[in-house]
Amino acid sequence: MTVANPNFVEEVKKSNEFNASACMNCGVCSAVCPMGIELLPRKLFRYVLLGFKDKVLENKETIYSCLLCRMCEANCPAKVHIAENVRLLRYYLNKNVFRV
Ligand code: SF4
Ligand code: SF4
Predict the structure, then answer these.
(1) C-beta separation of 51 from 7 below 8 A
(2) Separation CA 21–CA 45 (nearest Å)
(3) Ligand 1, pocket-test mutation among 42, 49, 70, 82, most atoms within 8 A of CB
(4) Structural domains counted in the chain
(5) Mean pLDDT of all residues in 67-79
(6) Is residue 89 part of a domain?
(7) Is residue 14 part of a domain?
(8) Which of 11, 21, 75, 88 has the smallest count of CB within 10 Å of its CB?
């Protein structure tokens, strides 16, 4: 069962600005992604905003498979800072999960 952690998004935000609340779930980002990443950003960022830390941790590999190419970002109608958000999630995981 997924348990919401209300502090999670605050923890992620601490490192910088996590910008995903404008996402309209249109799917353009997934359609243009050269890696065919369906989860990023719409579902994964939603998990962060909802505080579903366990769902984010379940999908660690996806977070590291992003090329940070910004194809998604260039086509996002809501101007979500997708690559920067991925970078923030990696920073969070490196620091708090992998402890590097
Ligand atoms: S393209 Fe932008 S608005 Fe559309 S689902 Fe992706 S992040 Fe959300
Ligand atoms: S930045 Fe990541 S999620 Fe966005 S299009 Fe490139 S590989 Fe896909």
Answers:
(1) yes
(2) 8
(3) 42
(4) 1
(5) 94
(6) yes
(7) no
(8) 21
Average pLDDT, the chain: 85
| Locus of tokens 């999670």 | 8
Predicted confidence band of residue 13 (pLDDT cuts 50, 70, 90) = low
Is 82 exposed, middle or buried, given 0-12, 13-18 or 19+ CB atoms closer than 10 A?
Answer: buried
- Ligand nearest, relative to CA of residue 37: 2
Domain housing 56: 26-96
In a domain, 56, yes or no: yes
Please provide the DSSP assignment of 7-41 as one string: THHHHHHHTS----TT-----HHHHH-TT--SSTT
> Which residue has its alpha carbon closest to ligand 1 atom 3?
23
Q: pLDDT digit string (tens) for 20-47?
A: 888 898 999 989 998 877 776 678 888 8
Residue 7 covered by a domain: no
The pLDDT, as a whole number, for residue 21 is 85
